[in-house]
């Protein structure tokens, strides 16, 4: 092995201090004579930085390193000898020594990798030490090439400055996987760094990729030492924090734009008025459908009998899930103890132009079988359904007995209303209020009575939203797509409605939660529809829609709507043009330009404050600040080197890397505690893996969730899934944006270039109904989510082009690994339970709307009707090197206690399956020259 090669091994200068196969230090004492300053030593130091994943500035101090580098004047030849632990450079002149050192630095260059990566760039002085290392990158890549030229005024070149230049060269190359040499006299280099004389000590940006340090003979070494020693603000350093501080300080609280109120008579008053309008009652029995709690309905029955003496019998039934309440309240209490089953014949939904599914009346019974098991002697399996195209009533219920005998228990015809939907010529047919008059058993008159919820929703749909649209008619390009029209709409609704926890799984009866979901999702559809009409592209980012529902039994229905203004301006993109130093070399301030203005900010550190439940055995950094200015932490788990500086892009070269994002949708609450629990034992994996965790990627949404659960702690709260202004911030990743939460994953991808990306999500833990959108989850979704399909399921994503077959193979290997972790656990049992429930109420009748893609012990979806397709998905954006990209979905919107614990455990098992498969894979860094790489993407083997 030639000297040029042996130097760059652990038999030479390199160290693997913890014996994990990763070069994590350079162990050399450079015994440089005081006045010897060969420029080729900069190349040598750059090569040392390239070869390691970590370094400290101890090269010019004798601390017992494994190699000592000495320099001896010679009259015979310029050459290097490496014997024992000493590397001696013999030289005839400093110029020849410089050439020798450059040759040693370039040793092995003939094995340069064929992959070409993006070159780092400096567009702002804050890019010098960026989140990714040295320089910034437009796109993520596992290949970072350093192309740098250093030029120093000869009058300033002192031994002190020269040593600092060596440190600078080593640190710049540390964050690179490829190196272009030489670092001096290279006019073709992408980045130029010059040191020249100046009256003030300052770092200046001369233009893109051109910067200089100006100062005196005394101040320049001190200033460069400060620059070399500083850390990016994300790592509790000070560098670049001035820009982040400016962005955070630029936030302003949204102003109230306008507000409106609504109020109406109660349903009870509407019913009484409808009856009184008939004059002389034509019947002796009243059947009323009312959207009120059971106690209120029972009291109203008494009021009706008192108010109308000619009425012999009055029954007040629920106008919300009428069939469910009728069976539960009137049939089950009188069920014959000898019956062996309950059969419910259901009329198939056939309203033309309606959004309802054919099985909507079966959906509206959910979970009557479990309620039957809870409240009678029958099991849930003993309750069966049949669906009929032609049936006189909505429901017909029979009791089943031994020997095949059947006994009719009753029929119910549910009153419905015709409600316009957002989309033209589309309608919903929700169950509604009504008064029916009977003479004995014969119906003689029916009068519809719109529920409080219907009347407010129609006002919101037909008056408020069109008025808002008119007010928003003048908008700027891009609004509604990558930034909103308004900051938020707050909707405070007060009504007298039923709210009951059923104590069956996580189920509840909640008409106002259903109204909440309709207001939220149907408003989104309103703006999506407007966008399609306007430009053929939906407005998917109108602004935050925040419904607050207040249940006050017996009160008149009322609502207040407040719209908060959006200040539409360009994202602040500060550029640091100057950094000022004291005479001592310490930072003073930074001059920042942006939008034609300049500001000077003091240089200070960003402190990392993590929540108390973040048990961090890894490295904690703050990647960004949210739109509301909240810090967004990233937790990095790898074996620490003990050195001053680590290079994640180089760590990924030696070890496989996985990124796990949690808390993206803030109402999906189990993923964050799950990943923190998993990482309590991170040392199980870090010998083989780097693990990067984004534990709460949406802190603004989480703040809204905390506000919403104060009043309704167990609702789904979909309004809190997106960010502060209702934006799915995944859609604006990799774009200039004021939403810092959108920048976090792109920053992590650039810093770590992971092999696998995992996105932990959640689904509703109880029934999701929207009566004004077809009694189902929103029409915008291609499949139904009206009840949980599993305790946890997976979604796999593969590219449509490059490496498609490899990605498909990798996905199947991941599915098997995750399945093996879930096998024989309580999670597997719960998955089976929910699959049966999902089948009984949906998949059995409409398999396309209620799909199941089975894997052992869990569902795993690969079809594009379920998987996201937007271009910010990691495997779609980077199919050349990302090996797998998966999503988990646990039934955690919003749960507590044992239910939350099971969701946490499900996420832990899912992620263990990912980590353990990746842990088994073998990878080898390649290239012993000026480029380091490994084969990407990995092909998984079980």
Automatic annotation (TrEMBL):
Residues 625-720 form the Peptidase M14 domain. It comes from the Bacteria. InterPro entries: Peptidase_M14. Coiled coil: none annotated. CDD domains: M14-like. It holds the Pfam family Peptidase_M14. SUPFAM superfamilies: Zn-dependent exopeptidases (SSF53187). This is M14 family metallopeptidase. It comes from Planococcus shixiaomingii.
């Amino acid at each position: 092995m030639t000297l040029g090669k042996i130097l760059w091994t652990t038999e030479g200068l390199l160290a693997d201090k913890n014996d994990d196969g990763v070069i994590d230090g350079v162990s050399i004492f450079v015994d440089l004579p005081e006045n010897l300053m060969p420029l080729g030593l900069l190349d040598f130091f750059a090569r040392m930085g390239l070869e390691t994943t970590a370094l400290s500035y101890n090269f010019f101090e004798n601390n017992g390193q494994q190699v000592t580098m000495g320099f001896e004047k010679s009259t015979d030849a310029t050459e290097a000898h490496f014997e024992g632990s000493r590397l001696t450079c013999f030289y005839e002149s400093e110029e020849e020594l410089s050439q020798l050192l450059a040759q040693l630095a370039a040793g092995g260059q003939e094995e340069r990798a064929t992959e070409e990566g993006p070159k780092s760039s400096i567009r702002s002085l804050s890019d010098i030490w960026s989140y990714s290392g040295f320089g910034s990158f437009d796109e993520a890549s596992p290949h970072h090439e350093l192309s740098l030229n250093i030029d120093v005024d000869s009058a300033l070149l002192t031994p002190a400055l020269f040593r600092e230049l060596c440190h600078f060269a080593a640190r710049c190359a540390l964050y690179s996987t490829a190196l272009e040499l030489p670092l001096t006299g290279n006019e073709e280099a992408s980045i130029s760094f010059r040191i020249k004389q100046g009256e003030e000590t300052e770092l200046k940006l001369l233009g893109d990729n051109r910067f200089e340090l100006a100062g005196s003979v005394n101040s320049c070494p001190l200033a460069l030492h400060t620059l070399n020693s500083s850390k990016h603000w994300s790592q509790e350093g000070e560098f670049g924090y001035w820009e982040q501080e400016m962005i955070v300080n630029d936030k302003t609280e949204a102003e109230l734009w306008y507000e409106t109120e609504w109020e109406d008579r109660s349903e009870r008053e509407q019913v009484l008025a409808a009856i009184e309008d008939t004059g002389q009652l034509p019947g002796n029995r009243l059947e009323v459908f009312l959207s009120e709690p059971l106690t209120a309905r029972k009291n109203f029955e008494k009021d009706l009998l008192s108010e109308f003496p000619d009425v012999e019998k009055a029954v007040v039934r629920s106008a919300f899930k009428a069939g469910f309440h009728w069976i539960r309240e009137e049939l089950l209490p009188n069920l014959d103890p000898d019956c062996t089953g309950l059969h419910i014949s259901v009329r198939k939904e056939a309203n033309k132009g309606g959004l309802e599914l054919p099985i909507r009346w079966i959906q509206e019974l959910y979970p009557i079988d479990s309620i039957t098991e809870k409240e009678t002697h029958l099991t849930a399996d003993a309750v069966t359904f049949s669906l009929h195209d032609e049936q006189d009533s909505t429901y017909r219920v029979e009791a089943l007995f031994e020997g095949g005998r059947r006994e009719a228990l009753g029929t119910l015809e549910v009153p419905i209303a015709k409600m316009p939907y957002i989309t033209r010529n589309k309608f919903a047919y929700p169950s509604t209020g009504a008064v029916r008059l009977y003479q004995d058993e014969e119906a003689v008159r029916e009068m519809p009575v719109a529920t409080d919820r219907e009347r407010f929703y129609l006002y919101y749909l037909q008056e408020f939203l069109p008025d808002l649209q008119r007010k928003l008619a003048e908008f700027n390009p891009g609004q509604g797509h990558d930034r909103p029209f308004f900051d938020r709409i707050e909707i405070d609704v007060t009504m007298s409605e039923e709210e009951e926890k059923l104590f069956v799984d996580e189920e509840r009866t909640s008409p106002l939660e259903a109204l909440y979901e309709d207001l939220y999702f149907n408003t989104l559809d309103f703006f999506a529809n407007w966008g399609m009409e306007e430009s053929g592209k939906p407005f998917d980012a109108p602004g935050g829609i925040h419904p607050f529902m207040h249940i006050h039994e017996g009160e008149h229905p009322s609502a207040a709507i407040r719209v908060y203004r959006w200040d539409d301006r360009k994202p602040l993109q500060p550029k640091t043009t100057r950094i000022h130093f004291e005479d001592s070399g310490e930072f003073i301030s930074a001059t920042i330009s942006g939008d034609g203005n300049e500001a000077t900010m003091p240089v200070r550190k960003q402190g990392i404050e993590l929540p108390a439940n973040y048990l961090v055995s890894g490295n904690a950094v703050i990647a960004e600040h949210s739109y509301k200015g909240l810090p967004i932490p990233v937790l990095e788990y790898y074996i620490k080197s003990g050195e001053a500086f680590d290079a994640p892009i180089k760590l990924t070269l030696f070890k496989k890397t996985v990124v796990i994002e949690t808390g993206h949708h803030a109402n999906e609450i189990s993923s964050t505690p799950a990943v923190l629990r998993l990482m309590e034992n991170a040392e199980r994996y870090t010998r083989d893996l780097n693990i990067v965790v984004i534990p709460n990627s949406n802190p603004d949404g989480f703040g809204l969730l905390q506000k919403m659960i104060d009043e309704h702690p167990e609702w789904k709260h979909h309004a809190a899934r997106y960010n502060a202004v209702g934006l799915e911030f995944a859609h604006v990743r990799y774009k200039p944006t004021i939403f810092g939460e959108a920048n976090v994953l792109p920053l992590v991808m650039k810093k770590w270039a992971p092999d696998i990306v995992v996105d932990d999500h959640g689904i509703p833990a109880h029934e999701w109904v929207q009566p004004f959108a077809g009694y189902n989850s929103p029409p915008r979704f291609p499949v139904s989510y009206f009840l949980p399909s599993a305790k946890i399921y997976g979604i796999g994503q593969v590219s449509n082009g490059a490496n498609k077959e490899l990605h498909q193979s990798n996905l199947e290997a991941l599915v098997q690994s995750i399945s093996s972790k879930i096998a024989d656990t309580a999670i597997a049992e719960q998955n089976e339970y929910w699959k049966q429930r999902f089948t009984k109420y949906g998949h059995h009748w409409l398999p396309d709307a209620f799909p199941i893609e089975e894997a052992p012990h869990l569902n795993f979806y690969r079809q594009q009707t379920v998987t996201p397709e937007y271009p910010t998905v990691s495997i779609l954006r980077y199919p050349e090197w990302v090996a797998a990209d998966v999503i988990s979905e646990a039934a955690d919107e919003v749960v507590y206690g044992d239910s939350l614990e099971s969701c946490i455990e499900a996420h832990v098992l899912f992620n263990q399956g990912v980590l353990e498969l990746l842990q088994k894979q073998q990878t080898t860094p390649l290239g012993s020259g000026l480029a380091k790489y490994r084969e990407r993407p990995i092909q998984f083997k079980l």
